[in-house]
Amino acid sequence: MRIQWLMLLLPVCLSAQEPVKLTLAEAEAVALKNNPSVSAAFLDAAAANQVTLEVRSTLFPTLTGSVTGVASVPFSNISAGGLNNSTVYDRLAAGATVSQLITDFGRTSNLAASARLRAEARNQLAKATRADIVLQVDRAYFSALRAAAVVNVAKETVKARQLVADQAEALANAKLKSTLDVTFAKVNLSEARLLELDAENALKAAEAELSNALGYREARTFALEAVPVTGAPPNEVRPLIELSRQRRPELLSARAEVESAKKFTTAEKDLALPTISAVGAGGGVPAHEAALHGRYLAAGVNVNIPVLNGHLFSARRTEAEYRAQAAEQVLHAIENRIARDVDVAFLNASAAYQRLALTVELLDQASQSMQLAQARYDLGLGSIVELSQAQLNLTSAQLANTSAGFEYSLQRSVLDYQTGAPK
Q: Of 110, 177, 136, which is closest to residue 320 (Cα–Cα)?
């Protein structure tokens, strides 16, 4: 029997988790470590950096080693398939061929610059992904803090209304108050318990959201460290918009994409220019017919001049020009969107900061009103309706005051994100 009880209690013990102590900075670090989107973005940026090396490889010499063995039918010649020396000799040879681009009149350099700028754009997008994750964690963190604070308010509300309900019932039993007072008090108590239930459920949901933002597969409970409320937001929005234009990674990425498109357009124009390369070959022929020498060495210069290709190069140049123009339009759209987002974030932060003082004043007035209503009720001068309204006003003021600080901290995080402030 004892073993059966232990088996029943074991899942309960396993499910009871110790709250994870966490600061905001630790939460951000954990999320950046666990979130696969951040790793994918930086890996994509690292891959883009390799494209620059791939393009620049054209500027460096290439060396190729070859080993060739040929057996021919007597008096055989190649009669079709190429304009070359058609006589085939028996031979076994080994050698190397080296080639070096002398100039393509800037095409490869422009292609390399375009690839480098595109890699820079990917690096900025990776930073943007990182900033998105940090903001997501901040939202979840402050939401969890606010939910925990609301739970505390709800519990205190239940205690306060329980006292009033007990008082009303005692007075009714003493024939000093009517049963209507008891009914009103119990209704208020039930509302407080519903508030507590909803608050606890909201806290669990907020912790689940925070767990997901941190990269955990299962919901966890947290003991979050409070974040001090920062000072007032800036007075003007215009400097913030200018800062965002200098620091927002999405905007820096779009600018790099525009410059990359322009460099690529120039490279496509250079397709119409000739390319000049130097080629050298050398090696030995240890086994060969008498018509061949035992060694060979040759060098030359090759000039390729494009003449006709069915308008391929002109079409590629025009395509690149259109894509560059499209990239510029995307840049303008991002600039407009970021300016709007900064403006909205500034207004929200300013309004949230003003709510701090207003909610403190509201709470003070509601507390005084509650004290007066309680005193009037105790003296028999006030009704239960008056006391109930005072309780409701006090609870609303407590909730507003509790949420104001966390809302302002969240809006400041959003404003920092919109202006590209480093974290």
A: 110
CA-closest candidate to residue 417, choices 212, 196, 132, 182:
132
Amino acid at 321: E
The encoded tokens of residue 68 equal 């060739």
Whether residue 192 contacts residue 158, with contact meaning beta carbons closer than 8 Å, is answered with yes
- Retrieve residue 407's tokens: 């809302």
Question: What's the pLDDT tens digit per position in 240-279?
Answer: 999 999 999 999 999 999 999 999 999 999 999 999 999 9
Residue with tokens 């800037």: 106
Neighbours of 339 (CB within 10 A): 18
Name the residue range of residue 248's domain.
18-58+91-418
The token pair at 297 is 């060495």
Q: Is residue 142 part of a domain?
A: yes
| Bridge partner residues of 158 (DSSP) | none
Where does residue 85 rank: exposed (0-12), middle (13-18), buried (19+ CB within 10 A)? Answer: exposed
Strand pairing category for 20-22 and 222-224: parallel
Of 191, 241, 227, 229, nearest in space to 408 by CA = 229
Rounded Cα distance between 240 and 412, Å, is: 13
Whether pTM > 0.90 for this model: the answer is no
346, two tokens: 């500034």
Q: Is residue 215 part of a domain?
A: yes
The total number of structural domains in the chain stands at 1
CATH code of residue 96: 1.20.1600.10
Q: What are the CA-CA distances from residue 70 to residues 81, 82, 128, 193, 284 (Å)? A: 18, 18, 59, 95, 14
Asked if 331 contacts 255 with a C-beta cutoff of 8 angstroms, the reply is yes
Strand partners for 70: 91
Inside any domain, residue 245: yes
Residue 260 lies in a domain: yes
The region of weakest confidence among 13-17, 30-34, 59-63, 385-389 is 13-17
Radius of gyration of the chain from Cα atoms?
A: 38
Using one digit for the tens of pLDDT, what is the confidence trace for 22-40? 899 999 999 999 988 899 9
**Which of residues 257 and 176 earns the better pLDDT score?**
257
